[in-house]
Amino acid sequence: MEKVNSIIEAIAQDKGIPTKAAREAFKVALIKTAQRLEGQDCKFEIADDEANDKIEIYRVLTVTHDDDINLDDYPNIYIDVEDAKEYGDVEVGDEIRLEFDLEEYGATGASNLYRELEYHLQRSVEQDLFEGYKNKVGDTITGIVTRVDEDDNTYVEIGELRGILTQRNRIKGEKFKVGDHLSALLKFVKVEPKIGMFLELTRTAPKFLEELMKREVPEIEDGYVEIVSSARIPGERAKVALTTDRANIDPVGAAVGSSGVRINAVSKELNGENIDCIEYSPVPEVYISRALSPAVVKSVRVISNKEGEKRAIVDVTSDQKAKAIGKSGINIRLASMLTKFAIELNDIEGTTLSGDTTKEEGLTKTSDTTALEDLFK
Known about the structure:
The chain has helices spanning 5-15, 19-38, 70-73, 81-84, 106-134, 206-216, 218-221, 251-256, 261-269, 284-291, 318-325, 330-339, 370-375, and strands spanning 43-49, 54-64, 78-80, 95-99, 140-148, 154-158, 161-165, 181-192, 196-202, 226-233, 237-243, 274-279, 299-304, 310-317, 342-348, 358-360, 363-365. It folds into four domains: 5-127, 2-Layer Sandwich (N Utilization Substance Protein A, Chain:P, domain 4), CATH 3.30.1480; 144-201, CATH 2.40.50.140; 205-279, K homology (KH) domain (GMP Synthetase, Chain A, domain 3), CATH 3.30.300; 281-377, K homology (KH) domain (GMP Synthetase, Chain A, domain 3), CATH 3.30.300.20. The chain is of the alpha+beta class. The radius of gyration is 33 Å and the shape is elongated. The strands form five sheets. Strands 5-6-7-9-8 form a five-stranded mixed barrel. It starts with a helix and ends with a helix.
């Protein structure tokens, strides 16, 4: 088959796929067509001479003894040694290649090649899409809601594909209707026989919160401020730990924005989820103390065992305990998720001063500076 380069290039342009992918699909289609016409158990090989603008297809036969049982069982892939000598000087075990001329089959051959080519080109297009979206896993993508089924699964049109936001991946209390623009995190790309390829989306992952903050906060997008960790109870509350190596940037202030405009935009996208921003510290005691905000703690003791389990014993006065725990335990749960420490609260006597007490770098600072000393006991 000659002068195929221009045909393959036209196919690639029409389907929007690389020329190499179109060429591979064309070669596979040739082999599948030959097998349809000659027998599915026949063996064929392609000789691709791109430089001379030619693609040839050959039928491959294995030479064997005349009493070999394979001659009866697999006549399409074995040939008697005596018959094979017609094609040259051969021995048992050799392979001979006979040129296969598809044009001899006329319209039947052409129609079969067309169907096979369409099928394999479509597979190539899907594979190209699959690889493209696989590289976007973990990114935020936006689409238009096309359907909401009886189980509240939301179907979203995203480019050439369909995204699915299941109820368990949706923030509690939020509703979508047909025509809504929806942003979500691409969780993974799936292919199922009945429905083909689709994108599974989520709005409940901590990474979705991080991606939204990156979108709203230029300092995070530009790499000046880093999100070290995040934790969420979707639709209720979240905590984000931030850091920077630039002395002139306040990471928390940058994330919150003037009058809270940046963090409020993120909260609005998350159905009103409350977001606490704290400054990360490499010192575990300080980090845990900040993570328990708005509670003011007296001291933190970090314990690690041989199994690698990390625990923190946190001393709090009775007036701060409820804040440390939070409604339904939400504050301490998020602090534990954020810091990766199992946090235990220990009641101690007394109260935490509030009149002349200020919070600085996550520590309680009083007139006698005892809080800083207590923290590292």
